[in-house]
Amino acid sequence: INRAAKYMFLVIALVFLVVFITELINDQRIHIFQYALVGFAIALFFVLLLSISEFLGFDNSYMIVAFAIIGLTFLYTKSIFNNTKSTYTLLGLMIFIFAYIYLIIQLEKSALLVGSIGLFIILAATMYVTRKIKWYEE
User: Fold this and answer.
1) What would the pLDDT profile of 38-48 be if each residue is shown by its tens digit?
2) What would the pLDDT profile of 107-119 be if each residue is shown by its tens digit?
3) What is the C-alpha end-to-end distance of the chain, expressed in Å?
4) HEC sequence for the chain
């Protein structure tokens, strides 16, 4: 749980990045309140993980809580983005993020190496996806 809590800001940042890129690609504005609700859902993941793992153990709790939070966020963003492809892409990326964090938590000695390489790949993918966005155009 302690190791998972250390990755809380990384998970929140990655989920916000995915939602932001989805917003840009769809050319659809998302209100700051909607971002806040997604952020609260991700933060709640760690509270639920802590409380449920006291009874079910870490691995089972992680899977249950990840499924619940990813499902909640998926259903919420499905109502925001009126685009099925974008919503399912967001779902896939969230599953990837939670699986990635779970993998890093499980690795003790090589967590820094795997985490750094993973973040490099995520940064490269973000640069690739946003390369054609005209940031200063109306």
Assistant:
1) 889 988 998 89
2) 877 878 888 888 8
3) 45
4) CHHHHHCHHHHHHHHHHHHHHHHHHHCCCCCHHHHHHHHHHHHHHHHHHHHHHHHHCHHHHHHHHHHHHHHHHHHHHHHHCCCHHHHHHHHHHHHHHHHHHHHHHHCCCCHHHHHHHHHHHHHHHHHHHCCCCCCCCC
CA distance 45 to 50: 9
pLDDT mean across residues, the chain: 85
CA gap 8, 38 in Å, rounded: 14
Sign of CA dihedral 114, 51, 75, 23: negative
Nearest to 20 by CA among 81, 64, 72: 81
The model's pTM is 0.80
In the chain the beta strands, taken as DSSP E runs, fall at none
